Please model this.
Amino acid sequence: MRPSTARIAAGLRETAPGIAAVVLLFLIWEGICRGFAIRPFLLPAPSLVFAQTLAAWPVVLKHTWATLGTVLLGFAASVAISLPLAMLIVSSRALAAALYPLLVITQSIPKVALAPILIVALGANELPRVIVTFLVAFFPLVVGTVAGLMATPPELIELGRACRAGRLQELLRIRLPFAIPFVFGGLKVAAALAVVGAVVAEFVGAEAGLGYLIQTSMAFFKTPLAFGAVIVLAVMGILLFQAVALTERLLFPWSSGAAPPGAGL
Amino acid sequence: MIRIDRIRKLFPTREGEVEALRDVSLHVAAGEFVAIVGASGCGKSTLLRMIAGLIPPSSGQVLLDGSPVTAPRAETAMVFQAATLLPWADVLRNVTFPLRLMKQAGAGTEARARALLATAGLTGFERRLPRELSGGMQQRVAICRALLQEPRVLLMDEPFGALDALTREEMSLELLRIWQGREMAVVFVTHSIPEAVLLADRVVVMSPRPGRVAEVIEIDLPRPRSFEQEALPAFQAAAQRIRALIYGGRLPRAA
Ligand SMILES: Nc1ncnc2c1ncn2[C@@H]1O[C@H](COP(=O)(O)OP(=O)(O)OP(=O)(O)O)[C@@H](O)[C@H]1O
Ligand SMILES: [Mg+2]
Model:
């Protein structure tokens, strides 16, 4: 098993600086809180954050599951809608001209403003939260996928034509595989944004979720718990991002490492 | 088999129309090996694309077995100047890609692909990705991909252009060996005069701006060809004639 231990060692070497930086940040934070004797409800020390979060662990876990559900549903909706949408945009000039302004409009509307309207319209259930999450997350995925589909080298397109490929075959057998690295660039951004979207939606209307936990904690000056929720959110974002990267490496080994410039937008 | 009948090709550009080809006529017999040489920009690739049915002529027509070529045909295969392999597919899947795309892949396809790769010296590389191969190996994969379609017309656009001299000579002979075992017309675009003479039954010399056929030269060398023939007077004479046509009498001389 030498190669795999070598891989783990290489992986450690790669992640070590990142971990060290985070640890250092927490140490400085702890030092400042103790050194200046800052009151915990203004800025709690990390040790206090960890202690209080751990003490409320079952509650935190419950809210984490709620948020994760919204994030995953919103992310899945982004994927399910963005990929066909991108293919439609690429397949016809008229459709592209019709759809692009709509897309830009959805991006110009502040989602925080949209969330309460959606909740009134659709009721205080999961659906408006998933829609907000989707609206926050899907745009980079569409843009990235379109960029990838359009970036297919003309030689490959000509090869397809020489093999008598129709428009649909060209799209599915040549353009789409070529766009995979771009798609994953978009997916990584979308994964991170989905967490943001879910929390935005929870701020506006929810009875559960980390966004809700942050709000209620702050209302009762339980600042350490709010910080704990923020840290859980950060970890969730990192894990989702890594899950996307891992999926790419497992399913499309030719894609990772050969990502074209600008693939991550 | 291929009849090119007074073809003209205009490309629209921002500075008006560019005449890429003017009044080009040519006949290629079944199983014949024809090389096309000419200065850069004289329309060689354009001509090849029109035979392939990838672009239409502005006037005139290309006939294949008597019927006009209006779209790519199954009996025609093309090798491009760059290998143009699919970066996501391994060597074997790249080679079988056209047949799979045209839904002509059968039970024996993979075995035939492996056999072809073996003749190209690529045994053991079937599962490699294109980026793990050298430029010469990639080009050999592209040639195998075209040959697997068992085309009756093989169009090659400077297929060895990106290769070093040694690989180039080796692959020229390999191509001849494969061609000899099949009933396959080859139209081979090249920048190398010796390569054209070594390979072809006839060499079409084109002149630029607009692209026209300057002359068609018969190569009277016995087959199988080999590089020893380069010393023969017939070889030298043909090469000299082509050179003179390309440089229009003003043969470049080293000072
Ligand atoms: N799609 C196009 N649009 C406009 N002009 C074109 C197009 N394709 C080719 N041309 C023009 O037609 C002429 C012939 O081009 P072509 O690519 O056939 O030359 P070539 O003989 O293959 O040159 P090379 O040896 O450099 O490959 C050139 O002047 C080129 O600028
Ligand atoms: Mg060319």
Remarks:
- Residues B 44-45, 157 surround magnesium ion (ligand 2) (CB under 6 Å).
- The CA atoms of residues 163 and 218 of chain B lie 27 Å apart.
- The beta strands of chain B are 2-13, 16-28, 33-38, 59-64, 67-68, 76-79, 153-157, 185-189, 202-207, 212-218.
- The mean pLDDT of chain B is 90.
